Every structure is written in structure tokens, then in C-alpha cells.
Amino acid sequence: MKPLPRLLLGLLCIYLIANALTLLWTAHHEVFPTFPQAWADRLATLYRARHAEDVANLEGLVGFALFTPVATAIYLGIRWAIAKIRHRRRR
Length: 91
Description:
Structural class: mainly alpha
Largest sheet: none
Strand content: under 5%
């Protein structure tokens, strides 16, 4: 596969994984560790959240920011595992 399509496919995979984790976090927040209330209040103040819709938007932004590195690690781990399996088959 050429480098540019591989890069774009990788970025798309990272985006989809991060988005899925963010949606899971917003829908089932009790499964994940709690976000400290002091941080949440400070972020809401910095974001100037005035009503519930602003808070929901902030929740999505924070979730996506938190889960993008996690999604990158998941993607790189999957790529590493696939490369390892392919290398083993060539032997």
C-alpha cells in the first residue's frame, strides 16, 4: 500500500476508535473512572458553559481529547500485532 493512503487510513481508524470510545464514555460514564468535580467545574468555567448543551459539547470535546492518545495506542498495538503475525508466517 502506498504511504499516503496508509497514513489516511490510519488516521481514519484512530478517529473512529476515539469517537467510539467517547460515545461509550458519554453514554455509560459509570463504567469509566470518575472525572474530578473540581476539574469539571474549572473546565466549564473556562469554556464558559451557560447551559446543558454547552456542558454536553464540552463533555464530547474532553472525551475526544482524552481518548485520542488511547485510540492511537490501540491502533499502533493492532498494527504491531499484525506485523508480528505476518513476520511469523514468512518464516
